[in-house]
Protein 1
Amino acid sequence: TIRMIPHKTQRGIVAVTHLKVFEGIPPPYDKIKRMVIPDAPKLGYKYCLLGRLASEIGWNHYVLSG
């Protein structure tokens, strides 16, 4: 939502000017044929640990808190 952007600061004002919002599929992609990959929805895992997910994207303190 727009509430997450600090729109009252100079940095936030610049961020809001660069923001593009689309309802539905944006124009360059609406004419491309969509395809469904059969194996994509079948992940095989029933749960994911938040700490492990965070460490995979760069959080360095998983060992300390786990």
Protein 2
Amino acid sequence: MTSALRHEAGRPRHARPGGASTVQMITPDTGARSILNGFTDIPPGGGIPLHWHNVEESVLVVSGSARVEVAGEWRDAQATDVVWVDAEVPHRFVNASDSEPLRIFWTYASATATRTLAETGETRAVAVEHDR
């Protein structure tokens, strides 16, 4: 396959820790070999746990406001800001609002990206972790 067009409405939504939910968009089943991406929605006051990946990640804040922890340093990010995180660097996103949802669009530098949770050390392939 040389290209793919995916509509979010036609994709499954998967629950994540911290009240978040994720929709994977471009995945290996589209033929992608070098990237993996999707949306994560985080409710007011929610957040995703501290974790890291085996590859670089770029995260666009689509809407809302975030508190982002990268390598122990906290930063504020707003809609249209982009956060880049190197491989193996612990990070997390927390919704900074008490009333508005946070939406991020993430892209990994490999279709075989993994996620390791800091709390448990458990590692899973991102593209298949929601199949469990």
